[in-house]
Amino acid sequence: DWPALRSLMPSNVRIGTAVDGRVLATDARYRAVLGRDFNAATAENAMKWSQLQPTPGTYVWQVSDDLVAFAEENGLAMYGHTLVWHSSVPSWVSESWSAEELGELLRQHVTAVVSRYRGKIWAWDVVNEVLDEDGSLRDTIWLRKLGPDYIADAFRWAHAADPDARLFINDYGTEGRTRKADGLLRLVSKLRASGVPIHGVGFQSHLQWDKAPVEVAGNLRRFADRGLSVAITELDVRIQLPVTPERLARQAMLYEQMLAACLAVSTCESFTLWGFTDARSWIPYNYPGYGAACLFDSEMKPKLAHSALVDALRED
Ligand code: G3I
């Protein structure tokens, strides 16, 4: 047995993980570790548009509803992911629709999903990955067809559907000080200045064992200073295979540094991992030659990174 992370976290910071809804339904050991170490959960896929509405007119809520119910029963706060994204959009939603039609479809989608879980989701990723590496708006179906206002509109629709939910913008490659992070800061400042209901910024943090992001705490603080919550939303640290003790140690250091950065910023509300076990991670499929990115190995044994977090929390 190992010390449960959720019992060691400061009371104002949640520790979360992405959850694979299908594994949740079938794997008791997965459920046990999830309920023991974590007090927050994000649906890895179940709340994406393509999963919720594969065909027009019909929503398929089962996997997502089951996860929300598990979270409620086990004292995990639900983080909603994600309402507006250019990826995992159902194939029937395409640029052959007119701008008016697409705008209306998007409004209905945001409203339907947020309303269904009103009061059950503490924060939503309202828009995901809307920026390019240079900090400008990413060229997506939404930007091309609806123009840049789709971002503000999405926040307003989400806020109307659940006025108590915290509304986040989420992206990757922004956890360190990068041009993209600068662009994100400009974008959220503009949104705040025009009264858009945006409350927080999510930093995905998909890291690689040998590349540390630069000045994470200082970067997060720039957003906190503007009155925004910040959150680490999708942390994992992929290792180039073969896994060696040295690489596991470097991985542990990065996990610990990201936790330290979150704890150093007063508005950091959650520290969320993109999956907790190497048995169920997106990395091997998307980064051939890499793996072992999570806190637990594929036998569900805690790795060095897990004990590094435990040690850091005990000292904190
Ligand atoms: O559900 C279908 C299944 O019915 C079908 O038979 C199968 C065949 O391809 O695909 C299944 O869907 C897959 C889905 O995961 C569920 O397993 C998709 O193809 C696959 O593309 C999808 O990948 C997910 C990816 O986002 C795209 O949505 C990954 O699991 C998930 O980890 C990843 O998560 C993203 C975050 O949402 C945003 N930030 C980056 C992060 C990593 O890419």
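The first strand starts at residue 14 and ends at 19.
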